[in-house]
Write a structure and sequence with these properties.
single chain; mainly alpha; 3 strands
Length: about 375
């Protein structure tokens, strides 16, 4: 008897479908939903893939569901304590998403609720609801409107943030009348900012960071800004791949912002994106942008090299210990010069006692104190 041929089509190469699987996995879709989206990116005339094979591939990539991981409140205790430093005000739903996107942990709502009741019961009573007046926002489609705004609440630390959002899908473009960015900043301050502001405030109060000290400001920029950008990128990725709460008054599509943005047609929407060739963008950059301009330097290059050497001498510690790194770099012994050479064409200042800085101010105060009291020769005024 002749051997029967397999009627099923061969599976696509893993290298071709893995990026799509991981992207859709971050959106927390079911296996069937991922499989339906995955079939849009493979040649169905040549390849095929079924649900059973997809589950095997997912297991091979170590992408495990909540039941398969089987985590308990005690299992997540250590990582929760670490994350609550940065996200002290995040609730049950928010922490489930953060654990999934930042640590790959799939935790059920019941387990997370049990954790809060066990370890953070005192915080549940502090939760307050913010009641906002509802307004319906409308846009024609994806890329119809880009809303751009800046965030100046951290200027006291020498930091300024910038963001761009597509209001139609809620997709955050970057986190570096515009109601959508204002809502995004409000959510950022509620979810993301408290832990970082606490870290910055504690550093200022402890004296290891003074925004008015130029050297400390340069060290802070070199160390903190790249780390903060990584954390903002993680926040941006988490929000774009998280399904928002259902709002029956919302007229725009409901769903995951990343999928609404990339697959507008699946939501009955239009994409108004205008494609620009990479060659044209490269030409504009060459004409108008000087990559060596000082504006692109976080700090002066010579100081950056010196700080890198100091950081390397400290053993390249994790940025979680930023206070220790700042104080370690600051307390390192440096060679100092007691006497500076006079610049050509200039003269020394007069060496008069009480001439410079605060001493000069105190000398003026002493002169004012030595002046006699003014004599008032006018007659006294009596009020009956």
């Amino acid at each position: 008897m002749a051997k029967r041929l397999n009627q099923n089509k061969p599976n696509p190469l893993l290298a071709q479908i893995e990026p799509h699987i991981r992207r859709l996995w971050k959106a927390r879709l079911t296996d069937k939903e991922i499989l339906a989206e995955l079939r849009k990116h493979i040649d169905s005339d040549e390849y095929g893939i079924g649900l059973t094979k997809f589950k095997a591939i997912r297991k091979q990539l170590r992408l495990c569901r909540t039941h398969q991981q089987g985590l308990t409140p005690d299992d997540i205790r250590e990582v929760m304590v670490e994350m609550r430093i940065i996200y002290p005000d995040a609730g049950v739903r928010e922490m489930i998403g953060l654990l999934f996107h930042e640590h790959g942990l799939a935790v059920s709502r019941s387990v997370m609720s049990s954790y809060f009741l066990t370890y953070e019961a005192h915080l549940l009573s502090k939760r307050k609801a913010n009641h906002l007046q509802c307004r319906r926002f409308w846009a024609a489609g994806v890329n119809d409107i880009w809303a751009v705004d800046q965030h100046d609440k951290w200027l006291r630390f020498g930091l300024a943030l910038h963001t761009g959002i597509k209001p139609f899908s809620g997709h955050i473009l970057w986190v570096k009348k515009n109601i959508m960015p204002e809502i995004a900043w409000s959510q950022l301050r509620q979810r993301f900012s408290p832990g970082f502001e606490s870290l910055l405030d504690s550093g200022v109060d402890a004296g290891w960071y003074d925004p008015d000290n130029t050297l400390q400001l340069m060290v802070f920029r070199w160390l903190f800004i790249p780390w903060l950008q990584v954390e903002l990128n993680n926040y941006h990725d988490h929000i774009n791949n998280s399904r928002k709460r259902h709002n029956r008054k919302k007229v725009l599509p409901h769903g995951i912002p990343e999928l609404i943005y990339t697959c507008a047609e699946d939501y009955g929407a239009l994409d108004f994106k205008v494609m620009v060739s990479p060659a044209a963008i490269d030409h504009i950059r060459q004409v108008y942008i000087d990559p060596k301009h000082v504006i692109f330097d976080l700090i002066p290059p010579t100081l950056s090299t010196f700080l890198y050497r100091c950081y390397h001498q400290l053993g390249c510690p994790s940025c979680k210990g930023i206070p220790a790194i700042l104080t370690g770099i600051e307390t390192e012994e440096h060679e100092t010069v007691d006497e500076l050479q006079l610049l050509p064409g200039l003269q020394d200042l007069h060496e008069t006692e009480g001439y410079m800085e605060a001493a000069h101010i105190r000398a003026l105060d002493q002169i004012a104190n030595d002046e006699p009291e003014p004599i008032n020769a006018a007659p006294s005024l009596l009020v009956a």
